[in-house]
Design goal:
Helix content: 40-55%
Bound molecules: adenosine monophosphate, magnesium ion
Order of helices and strands: EEEHHEEEEEEHEEHHHEEHHHHHHHHHH
Number of strands: 13
Number of domains: 3
Length: 487
Amino acid sequence: MKALDDLTFDNRFARLGDGFSTHVLPEPIDAPRLVVASSAAMALLDLDPAVAQTPVFAELFGGHKLWAEAEPRAMVYSGHQFGSYNPQLGDGRGLLLGEVYNAAGEHWDLHLKGAGQTPYSRMGDGRAVLRSSIREFLASEALHALGIPSSRALCVIGSDTPVWREKQERAAMVLRLAPSHIRFGHFEYFYYTQKTELHQQLAEHVLKLHFPECQEQPEPYLAMFREIVERNAELIAKWQAYGFCHGVMNTDNMSILGITFDFGPFAFLDDFDAHFICNHSDHEGRYSFSNQVPIGQWNLSALAQALTPYISVEALRETLGLYLPLYQAHYLDLMRRRLGLTTAEDDDQKLVERLLQLMQNSGVDYTLFFRRLGDEPAVLAVAQLRDDFVDRAGFDAWADEYKARVEREGNASETQRRERMHAVNPLYILRNYLAQNAITAAESGDYSEVHRLHEVLSKPFEEQAGMEQYAQRPPDWGKHLEISCSS
Ligand code: AMP
Ligand code: MG
């Protein structure tokens, strides 16, 4: 277990030089205080969880102090936003403080979001509000606990510093951890600006540090692209299977590692709704829940374009062609498990689709349905769930097929079935209204609800005593919350 002073830095990205990032010091926030820390994320740095309670912790992650070995940099990148190319983006309010390696030899980027203005801030103030920082913290840690790859969050530091959004709010900082902060948009930036040497340097850096096994392949860059396609197909299959809507799948928000990255107006589905749009400025529904699947491919094509200096167009096209079948295979596998099925049959896809259509028509809670389906033997469970559906005849027809399908699985014991299903069907998810309750309390200085919610969501598959209120459908006020896109 380490103290804060014992962190060891190895700033590999900073060493790439000034063509990739600009040195910027964090701009401190007033009266920094710990809102919440994740001991699981601290463990990634071998940090003793007790250090989160020391004043120096809030000073470090509130921008007041810096390790001598840190080299804070704002990274430059570009990207496609809502389908249009934006030639100049970059860290407008976040800084890569440095790369820390742990006892296991893993490197983790320390990225401080809300650290003040940078050369890439454009008209922005360089700040993040408490509300969005808490949302990012809770979501990163909750996704990780669900088994969905994500950047992690070490802590949120609150402050007295006022910031203006739709109304006056308070600034906060969130310390994000990821093995890399390189986005699709990094490759796009060097490709479209025709900075050939830097582009090459970036590609070598990513290959060597993040895809070392691809170096052994006959065509290393093609192998790397293939790996990125595979990881994204799997990531998006998990989003779809668990009802996570990212909301801003611009290519500058897509991690080269295939992890969930850059949290904005994201949401988990309450009622199942394939057309759900969580981002209120997404008027066309480009990033609606079901569109995440084709958008994943669109984004990979944008990355492919930026890799044309290294890989033939035919090979890129062929590799892109793997995305959809891979996605479908992962998705179907996850949905089979969610239904408690351990074998594969040809009609399983249809069984899933019909269920989702019924859920859509009746506005059935996506998370609780699967959890309750595993609570009891199939025959009993469907009899209990029937009342949630408006189209009872439709549900009965589906349930008959499901029961027959479960029968053909052979005879797992009641306990085996429940354990297997509960291990993949969470009881607790980060519902928007739960996040909102925690934020409202935190805005008035009470962080206990953030702590409780973080704690509950860190074991989403385990029923926790006294936590029934976190496993409910939202109340009416919490169903269609407008989550502000300003953050
Ligand atoms: P996002 O929508 O959060 O992914 O941000 C898109 C771009 O806008 C990125 O380059 C951000 O760094 C930048 N940005 C977002 N909010 C701010 C802000 N308050 N101040 C400066 N830059 C910002
Ligand atoms: Mg972003």
